[in-house]
Amino acid sequence: MRRSSRQRGFALMMVMVLVAVGTVLGLSYLTTTTVKLAGTNNLVHASRAQYLAESGLEHCLWLLRNNPEAVPVSDSPSLAAYQADSTSDSYSFWATPVAGRPGEYVINARATLGELTRTASMTVRFTSRYRSTLLAKNPLNYWRLGETWGSTAYDTKGVRNGTYCSGVILGQPGAILHDSDKAPDFDGSNDHVDLGKMNVYGDKVTFVAWFKADINPNADAAIICKASGTGNSDHYWAMGLTKGTDKAKIYFRLDVSNLKLLLSPGVYGSTCDVGTWIFAAGTYDGAMMRIYQNGVEVASRKATGVIGTSATVSAWIGGNPSSEIACPFNGILDEVAVFSRALSADEINAIYAARVPDAEIISWGQ
After folding, report:
1. Contact criterion met (CB below 8 Å) for 134 and 281
2. Which residues of 149-167 are buried (b: 16+ CB within 10 A; e: fewer)?
3. What is the pLDDT of residues 122-164, one digit of tens each?
4. Phi and psi at residue 342, in whole multiples of 5°?
5. 3-state helix, strand, coil in the chain (%, to 5)
């Protein structure tokens, strides 16, 4: 009996030990599982925060490349915060120019998930290819109009320099993004660039230019023009803005075989917004006249014949050479060029697209 009691006591003790061990092991497992779950959640949050910060970098890079004026240079204030999905998670960004290195920026982004924040940064360099793209099309003349002093508007091709007249304001921000080249501002009264007794020959030509109008013109406003008066029959060739019912439209005039032709978009054609950079092109291939706005054809008409010339009539940028106050342009003109052939639609679009620079990521950091 004593042995049996001792055996039962020992068995009970073993059961209690096993229960205690199981309890400890169970609690340990639960604790370990809880720690693992918390660690996993933290990792997920941290990964999402890093993803959001890098998304902010990509957003800032795109905006800085295409619309640099919209990006602040410091985090006070930064741009946004941009909210992700339907959550309260967000990111903000800013970009700071690198001193002494034109075209280089440090881009910063900050992501916020509740109390968790993550930052990311990278250094990027922008390189304009506009000048090389246009020169590759072999223009007759190319006035970048980037002078900041003096009276000479230099022809990049070295063929026909122009003269700034009547107080054109030089050195204004130009049309080409991340390009140090500047542009002149015309007052809409009498400012112009005198190109002398310039002619274009044959039955093919292209005119291209960037413009940003300050106002909608009350009458025609010339971008580039060779004319002896303001009437249609007085023009040898011209491209500019014509008055519309509410907004201006691009016009293109030619004298071909003594037939004076005017082309502009119709009543429902493309219009030009004030205060916005617009790329205009007029082409003539001996059979058709065409107008392009921002790389897209917006008007065309049939035309044949040789372009008229004159040894006594001048050509101007920013006005009509018949008078300083005839058809003046009010706003900024930039990157004016003339070609002795009709550029194709693809070539026009390539020049337009080259306004946006190439971007090279130099370094990537946290």
Report:
1. no
2. eeeebbbbeeebebebbbe
3. 999 999 999 999 999 999 999 999 999 999 999 999 999 999 9
4. -90, 110
5. 25, 40, 40
Amino acid at 32: T
Task: Go through the domains of the chain in sequence order and give each one's CATH number.
Answer: 2-127 (no CATH), 130-353 (2.60.120.200)
- Within 8 A by CB and 6+ apart from 24, the residues are none
Quote the tokens at residue 209.
């230019």
Closest CA to 262 of 244, 235, 296: 235
- How far apart CA 225 and CA 253 sit, in angstroms, is 9
Rounded Cα gap, residues 60 and 76, in angstroms: 16
Q: What is the pTM of this model?
A: 0.85
* H-run or E-run covering 52: helix 2-66
| pLDDT tens by residue, 85-121 | 656 888 999 999 999 999 999 999 999 888 888 999 9
Give Cβ neighbours of residue 77 (< 8 Å, ≥ 6 apart): none
Single-letter code of the amino acid located at 315: A
Q: Using omega within 30 degrees of 0 as the cis cutoff, is the peptide bond preceding 77 cis?
A: yes
